[in-house]
Design brief:
This protein is of the alpha/beta class. Helices cover 29% and strands 31% of the residues. It is elongated and about 60 Å long. It starts with a strand and ends in a 12-residue tail after the last strand.
């Protein structure tokens, strides 16, 4: 029986991935689930799995760090939250990836490719990982927090807390799970200052934190709408940015 480990720090996403794999690949045995990179390495040492579904962004060690540590010990499918640099590198390497939130058709493609490779030695990831490192470490420093107005109060909000930014007249709306506030920095300026692997522009007036995207749906007119974690509203995706979600 083929064995696998899921390394994903978000329990709900790990459950979704496990459920989808159970339907697509019933013969696959999930022998462990890791919540961080260090635990993932330990599980691979303990179980020696055939496949590792490896989240790129994890505490402790990133998925890229784990992949370097593992070398060619297992076939790896990276799980990534809309990371354009990662996708570009994967598409030129002998490796596969799945976008978060997991889309079953894309996962089915990844599963089929992994099955084809099971009879061969796992791919050498060194070239892909070097490309990713070069793309991610280009010397830039990104915005870490904003000073936002909430009534008469000025509050410091880290970018990890922010679901999305939306242009609002002369100001920009900063939306978190807990509420809304305003900053004077325009969307265009934010586009240049935020990490593009974390914040995607989906409309000329909107930047979304991909870690808060729960799913994508089409409305009755066929337009894409993003569903968010911890927020009830959906965000429209303009036609210019629908290509970002072509795998979903």
């Amino acid at each position: 029986m083929t064995t696998a480990i899921i390394a994903e720090d978000e329990p709900l996403l790990a459950d979704e991935l496990a459920d989808a794999l159970a339907r697509l690949w019933p013969e696959l045995e999930i022998v462990g689930r890791a919540r961080d990179g260090i635990e993932a390495v330990r599980m691979v040492e303990a179980h020696n799995p055939d496949v590792v579904f490896l989240d790129i962004q994890m505490p402790g060690m990133t998925g890229l760090d784990v992949a370097k540590q593992l070398g060619a010990r297992a076939h790896i499918v990276f799980v990534t939250a809309f990371d354009q640099h990662a996708i570009a590198a994967f598409e030129h390497g002998a490796i596969d990836y799945v976008l978060k939130p997991v889309a079953v058709p894309r996962l089915a493609t990844a599963v089929a490719r992994v099955k084809e490779r099971l009879g061969r030695a796992p791919a050498d990831l060194s070239g892909v990982l070097r490309d990713l490192a070069a793309n991610r470490n280009d010397g830039r420093t990104f915005l870490r927090w904003v000073n936002a107005s909430m009534g008469q109060t000025i509050k410091l909000i880290t970018v990890e807390e922010i679901c999305y930014f939306k242009a609002d007249s002369k100001y920009t709306l900063v939306v978190t799970p807990a509420g809304e506030s305003l900053i004077k920095k325009p969307i265009k300026e934010l586009c240049d200052e935020l990490d593009p692997s974390q914040f995607w522009q989906i409309h000329r007036s909107t930047l979304v934190n991909v870690n808060f995207v729960a799913g994508v749906a089409r409305d009755f007119r066929g337009h894409l709408q993003l569903k968010l974690k911890q927020r009830n509203e959906s965000l429209p995706v303009s036609e210019s940015y629908t290509h970002l979600f072509r795998q979903m």
